Amino acid sequence: MDQPQLAVFKYKHGGRASISGKRKVFLVASLILALALSVLAFPAGLLAGIVPLVAFFGGAKTLCVGPRYLICGDEIVYYANVTQVKLSEAAGSLSLQTASGKTLLIERGKFPTNARKANKIAANQAAKFNKVSAKIVDKVRRASPALAAAGA
């Protein structure tokens, strides 16, 4: 059975950065190399110990939108468990409340951009937020017929 691909967007959430499988392999290999070098040549081992630290702390913070769930940092929200959706275009926020009472807030200002001018930054963040929020709201409505009927 094929594993569905997740749509991944850079998002500055408050949780820890996600570490991919390749990054984990690189982290373990560089840690072993740094330990071996520290036994053979102490100063070189200390310098080589910086590489695993950079690999560990250099992970990107992302928002992953899947077919049945969304992952933001340490939180996983299943669309079928969402009881309330609040989309505020003016405030630039999307709030998802689950059946367990947890609330996930996605904000427009937390989407990074490479633009330098304030108007371009605002336009890029708004475009990215609109794209992501439209995907999430559509998937929540498909997974939860009660919200679709209520006009979430």
From TrEMBL:
This is Uncharacterized protein. The lineage of its organism: Bacteria, Pseudomonadati, Pseudomonadota, Betaproteobacteria, Rhodocyclales.
